[in-house]
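#struct-queue
[09:14] JT: dropping the first one here, sequence first, then the structure tokens:
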Amino acid sequence: MTRTRPAAPTPSSGLPGALRCRRKFLRRFPGGFRDPAYLEWERDYKLETHRRWLDALSRDTFRDLLRDRQAAEAAARAVRVEQRSRHSMLFSFEKMALRDALRSPQGAHDFAHGLYEYLHGRGSMERRFEQWVAAIDALPRRQTRVLTWPLVTVFGFIAQPTRHMFMKPNTMRAAARVYGFELPYRSRPSWETYASLLAFAGLVRQDLADLRPRDMIDLQSFLWVQGSDEYA
């Protein structure tokens, strides 16, 4: 007797490309978010980076460093955690621009305090995101710009992957197009675009509920499969 694979549930979002994107992901990773290849290629190194963040800059450690006027050390730890990832999420020009900006004591101070407030401060997510963008925009600049989507979003994604999403613009815009989601993109990081990205991730989570995505790592990885040339 031949077994037939159960039909995929109808995506609750109703977006035109949702089912096609699901099929593409499962062709590559038949075991879904628990597939051994998926874990090796997409999830495990991101989760390991998050764990290194918790070891280096937990909320209490981060707070204590700032209280002890060690903002430069806090900034250096944040950068080291990202750079030691098996697959760095930043472009080389972004890493150089950030490294240049943090050589200035004022730059390191503003970066570290801005990042702490973004991750652990009070107020709405919108207000904290906009203040974080402003802090990055104010960093010293030598040659290349510091204010990019990957740089603005990578540290939130590493530190709090249940809450924050990582934005590589070309890949996420491509994923949104094939999924049928209208993402109001602007090259300058803005709350409008980031809030829309979070909403997009929320819709994808609902559509894939039976596959049990655990966090934004799974959702970002799913969308990466849809939009990246690596999975064309």
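[09:21] JT: and here's the second one, same format:
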Amino acid sequence: MATVSHPVFARVYERLSVAMDRAGTAAFRRDLVAGLSGRVIEIGAGNGRMFSHYPPGVTQVLAVEPERRLRAAAERAASDAPVPVTVVDGLAEALPAGEGEFDAAVVALVLCTVPDQASALAEINRVLRPGGQVRFFEHVAAEEAPRLHRAQRLVDATLWPKLFAGCHTSRDTVAAIAAAGFRVEELRRFRFPATSNSPSSPCVLGRATGPLPTVGR
């Protein structure tokens, strides 16, 4: 089994995610999945805070979460979701799904934590149908603020990833998504909280489309 255990972080995150949603993250989650339809895979579902925001056009969500405490919380949240949600154990680098099964993939505050972004994005590409969507909401490098970017690199090299279940604040995730073959079609950069200089405050929210099959040779 892919199960991992971060019991201290999981307990903190269960409370923190509720507070973050009240402070504005819920609106980002709602925007992230707006207009989705068909079958969706959510990678790193956490405690299921995304589930209530899926629109009625979504016919099924496969929610992948490796952390056992958070997965149990997600299973409870799935029972109240407005669309069918199945919660499973699994890692971003080895998704428990076949090729081309999904119309869209959702990642929220996940690609900052995975050990290898390229491997995770290759797996997302594998399980999406040709031309499928990736919706992403992620912590990213503060490219427009060199001083904060230096602080991000410093905390990433010390305690931050250990305290926050592998989170790296200084990753250029948008470039990684493009390098994996996805076409970034919508992108919004912002700070959350808006006036914060925390290493985790620079964020992006966007939509990318997977490559279409080659026609003819």
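[09:30] RK: nice, looked through the second one.
[09:31] RK: The longest strand covers residues 128-139.
[09:31] JT: good to know. The chain is about 35% helix and 25% strand.
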